[in-house]
Amino acid sequence: MTKLFDIDSERRNAILNAALKEFSSQGYDNASTNVIAKEAGISKALMFHYVSSKQELFLVVYDYFSDLIKMEYFSLMNYDEKDIFSRLRQSYLLQIKLSEKYPWILEFHKLSRTTNSNEINEELENRSRKEHASCCPKLFDEIDETKFRKELDIDKCKQFILWSAIGFTNEIIEDIRNSESPDLNYELVVEKLDGYFVELRNVFYTQSNE
Amino acid sequence: MTKLFDIDSERRNAILNAALKEFSSQGYDNASTNVIAKEAGISKALMFHYVSSKQELFLVVYDYFSDLIKMEYFSLMNYDEKDIFSRLRQSYLLQIKLSEKYPWILEFHKLSRTTNSNEINEELENRSRKEHASCCPKLFDEIDETKFRKELDIDKCKQFILWSAIGFTNEIIEDIRNSESPDLNYELVVEKLDGYFVELRNVFYTQSNE
Amino acid sequence: MTKLFDIDSERRNAILNAALKEFSSQGYDNASTNVIAKEAGISKALMFHYVSSKQELFLVVYDYFSDLIKMEYFSLMNYDEKDIFSRLRQSYLLQIKLSEKYPWILEFHKLSRTTNSNEINEELENRSRKEHASCCPKLFDEIDETKFRKELDIDKCKQFILWSAIGFTNEIIEDIRNSESPDLNYELVVEKLDGYFVELRNVFYTQSNE
Amino acid sequence: MTKLFDIDSERRNAILNAALKEFSSQGYDNASTNVIAKEAGISKALMFHYVSSKQELFLVVYDYFSDLIKMEYFSLMNYDEKDIFSRLRQSYLLQIKLSEKYPWILEFHKLSRTTNSNEINEELENRSRKEHASCCPKLFDEIDETKFRKELDIDKCKQFILWSAIGFTNEIIEDIRNSESPDLNYELVVEKLDGYFVELRNVFYTQSNE
DNA sequence: TATGAATGAGAGTTCATTCAT
DNA sequence: TATGAATGAACTCTCATTCAT
User: Domain containing C66 — which CATH number?
Assistant: First the structure.
């Protein structure tokens, strides 16, 4: 239905990025197709030549980045790595790399917010039903729990670790937003990241030297 | 400027709650003054008699709840309690209590999201500059750090604890939204809460029995 | 649902007449709410305060004039008059009178044209099913058929008479459109009308002097 | 100006028929060049290569069918036939035949409806001024008026006959539109037609057996 | 010759806001 | 105090038309 995937990839990316930015920051209802078209550098009419409606644009964006994340993130993840923090590190490196090409991709999950459009809500529910809570569970699947200190409740710890990861993600996003050239501080981000992982190991793992 | 504080408190609360609900759930841009007026049970024109604009309404709501939180929350907090988790527990009990009168107050922080209105963005930045990250620092001020395991980096741990608290808050909010009679599961919430605190002590504190 | 009938009758008539003019001349699909609002002398937004949509406006206009025609035309018709041409004359006098207040009312039937909007088409079909071919049958009901020349097929003659009446109606409409002050030639129209009726009697009736 | 007449006649006919259908059924303003191009089986851009604008397309269609009617209809009419009803019969047989190749030609007159485009309105008026009511006068020219009953006003009778003919035409059109295979009921149409002519003779002519 | 890409103008509709009472 | 009426600007989307190839 959409003609978005028959066109030049540079323009396609411009549209997809612009749409992801607008939809994730403003939400579906408040997102303006005007803003998206302007940010993508094309006329509004042309955009509606590529997609038939705001709804379709939203769903195309959702599916595109959903697939992208599957292929450029999930399928590249090495789940043989059983150390949860090494896994998380892997995950962050991939995400940061993706962020270079798709600067708003870390905000992808915000697309799932409930909107005023029931059709969108239903479609989103369909997709999430298929995927069954896409990211988090697998990240924690079959991790090496023997490394955790024995007295800890593993499930609760996973929860704490997840929440910390979310908090850290938000910090990264803010860092990226606040710097014009996001590529420059790639190393700084990784350094910060590694600092956190050192500490998380201290917190949750049996100390090796004890 | 606003006449909101010259009127009957019941109506004022109706307006403030309705506005907080709409602004926090829809965001400033997408929030509808129509919906707020209807939810508050008054005409739109009357609402614009009390406040001069949507902007003013937003800022009044922001400041009102900001002050409320200061007075009904911060000033009631007992900072003599130096145990961070006991402090956090206190904090949650106070917040949940506030939620009974102001059901959307836990969502207050969502008001700070960036909007399309630059004026709003600026005003919000002014306020946050004045307050300098209103809640968190004090929550962690002068806590008893001796309880922490010696090998831990206290500052990073505080960060982890804060992120966990944020995650837990979101869980509470979802619980409240998903239940028709929020008061009933007050005890359940506290129970869950205490479970988390037990574990957090396990994680971060020196084990007493060792 | 519509607030059109709670407002000042002068403005209401302005809107109804403007809408009837636009809808009957342009058809539902091509009719412009802009044009209607401008012709009625109000803002488009106000018009959408009175009616919730173009569809509703159309249906309100349809029903209003449909009812008006029933009350100011059908119920005033004296069907005790059994002479078909006297009846038709009555009919025309009433229609011309209505045209003074509602200059486009003779075009009312054009509202029934099929449009691109299936909802409108369905609503129109519902209404026409209820009314069962509103005008014509009754006009020819129980007329005095003994006046017709014996060798004629009455049913076919009725058809011819109806078609002539339609042709005459179109002539009247054109006359009205071509003159700025339609009231002036009221008498001229009636005169022309009577000329036709004289001749129609000659054509279809047994000649009295034979 | 137009290049329509330099191209393959089959494609030309496809365009002309598609345009006649769309313009006559939707009116000039609401007609979509998209629909016409699609129905004609060519791209919109190519269509605008043949004609310079929607306006020109409309006028070309108008003039083409106007000429066609002149040549394939008017010039084939045998005006030596002085009996008006035989003439009308001739006329209908020719029209029905034309309908086979140009299915929408009976709707040609609908092109003359007033539109929102003043240029189109003016052009149409020019053409009709030149032709002076193209069809009707000649149809009634030099007919044998002696056959009419003596007491009748011939001019008015011509008017009645014309109006009946119009009514009958509409009936035929509706018949054609409502049947999937229009050719099948060709004979039925002619039969119906002849029934009307018999009666019209009864109505207007001196009865032969009296 | 033939077409997909591209656009500005305008459609219906909603919104925050002001006016009159 | 309180409200319904009123509006201009902005929204999403479609259209006839032009451009580039």
Answer: 1.10.357.10
